[in-house]
Amino acid sequence: MSFSAAASARADLVLANARVGLGGAPRQVLIAGGRVAEVRAEPSGVRGAEVVDLQGATLLPGLWDAHVHSVQWAQARRRIDLSGARSAREAAALVAQSPRTPEPVMGFGFRDALWPDRPHKSLLPATHPVVLISNDLHMIWLGPAALALIGRPDHPNGVLRDGECYDALAALPAPPTARLDAWVAEATAAAAELGVVGLRDFEFADNVTDWTRRAGERDVAVRVACSIPRNRLEEAIARGLRTGDPVPGSDGLLEVGPVKIFLDGSLNTRTAYCDDPYPGSAGHGRLEMSPEELAETMALAARHGLHPAVHAIGDLAASIALDAFELVGCPGRIEHAQLVRAGDFPRFARPGLVASVQPAHAPDDREVADDQWRGRTSRAFAYAGLLAAGARLELGSDAPVSPLDPWDGIASAVARTDDERPPWHPEQAIPLRDALAAAAGGRTGVRAGDPADLMVLERDPSLLGPRELRRPAVLGTLLGGRWTHRRGI
User: Fold this and answer.
1) 1-62+446-489: what fold?
2) pTM of the full predicted structure?
3) Fewer CB in a 10 Å sphere around the end CB: N or C, the chain?
4) In tens digits, what is the pLDDT along the chain, a chain of 489 residues?
5) Per the UniProt record, which EC number(s) apply here (predicted)?
6) How many Cβ atoms from other residues are within 10 Å of residue 453's Cβ?
7) Rounded to 5 degrees, what are φ and ψ at 460?
């Protein structure tokens, strides 16, 4: 309910009867100039402000998704869902049932690590381009017509991994920019409905330019840290971009993000770089660059004020990344850190280092991890171990690898399961308060001076069971004091 009020202090918006924080007592929260101006124990009138009575709803910091691929997520929402396919032939059959369009047929979400057969171009139609992307984005499976479309008609099997996968995706014809921007806007508006106020975009693109265009053409529902792909590092240096700087003309909504550097592959493609070989092969995964090249690239970025974000999933890759951070001495991020050497946990506590993790991947990948990382899963997706060692965690989704839904990640971090299966390595569960803080960029409360990036929940999350925590009722989201989502208040 909204109503006018008259009296003394200055504010643009007053949130009355708000239970601030987990287990919080009712408070009155004043918002002015896009920031929290005051949190009062005793309510009183405010001249000229809109007053919204939250009627005892819970007010918390808004959530950040620390790892998103915005355009791929926006497109995945419109692609054929292959997540339920139990074999390559079953995935091909799902595609065969789809209607034909002038554009390539696109499927997304398959996981082939436990399939009894293997993807091959011969299983896909030869008459129309078919492009199937794995759930972890590290593998692309192309039919004969799609291979011809990207200039690789003679590829032996149509399956490309890691760097070749990204090159193939870039070579495919893209939808018109205006259509993609509209899809991204829809996806970020949907995220705002879940309490999301910001995201780190790791799209393999010129994100600063793309998001500047989007912010200039329409209201943006979230703040965005615009990452820089490694292949654009020299260009970013020439443009004078520095991590953390606001992007001009974005009204404070956009900032320059880190430089994304791929060090290894992924678990599902068996290319994450590990100390121990994968079962049934002599392979340990693979590095995308040598340790020396990694350190040189990080040092170049750091000299120009750009923080590295190093993709490292396997335990050996994570150790190499930690070595490089110690050598270069710069702040930055390790993205994923899915498998960590026992002796490396304390090394994540170094000042300025963020462990950017995606808890929804743990229940998604538990069977694959039990199979491919057999005997090592006590230190896989080990969030409690990282926290206990003093690491700074930030939670993300890696959308579209998992949905852009922070509650999916929060609930998975707390419960270590997402269905009827018993918790997987429950000793690695983390408390709700820590999960919420890691999902809110480190913010643990609503304090005067903070940006008014807030969410309103119908019920206190600490009172919810695991199922309810996965789908809380978000009544409102504020970004710099403006509503990006509002329902029933």
Assistant:
1) Urease, subunit C; domain 1 (2.30.40)
2) 0.91
3) N
4) 333 333 346 899 999 999 999 999 999 999 999 999 999 998 787 877 899 999 999 999 999 999 999 999 999 999 999 999 999 999 999 998 877 777 899 999 999 988 999 999 999 998 899 999 998 888 999 999 999 999 999 999 999 999 899 899 889 988 999 999 999 999 999 999 999 999 999 999 999 999 999 999 999 999 999 999 999 999 999 999 999 999 999 999 999 999 999 999 999 999 999 999 999 876 999 999 999 999 999 999 999 999 999 999 999 999 999 999 999 999 999 999 999 999 999 999 999 999 999 999 999 999 999 999 999 999 999 999 999 999 999 999 999 999 999 999 999 999 999 999 999 999 999 999 999 999 999 999 999 999 999 999 999 999 999 999 999 999 999 999 999 999 999
5) 3.5.-.-
6) 28
7) -60, 125
3-state helix/strand/coil string of 161-190:
EHHHHHHHHHHCCCCCHHHHHHHHHHHHHH
| Residue with the two structure tokens 């990344």 | 321
The conformation of residue 346, written as its DSSP 8-state character, comes to: G
Token readout for 296 is: 């040189």
Query: Which helix H or strand E contains 476, and what residues bound it?
Result: strand 474-479
Domain ranges in the chain are 1-62+446-489, 64-69+178-445, 72-171
Domain topology for 72-171: Diaminopimelate Epimerase; Chain A, domain 1 (3.10.310)
- Length of the chain (residues): 489
User: Which distant-in-sequence residues (6+ apart) come within 8 Å of 220 by Cβ?
Assistant: 185, 188, 211, 214, 253, 254
| ∠ CA 395-230-338, rounded to 5° | 35
Token representation of residue 403: 């949905």
Q: Where are the alpha helices (DSSP H) in 383-489?
A: 383-388, 406-415, 432-439, 466-470
Q: Which CATH class is domain 64-69+178-445?
A: alpha beta
- The SS3 of residue 215 is helix
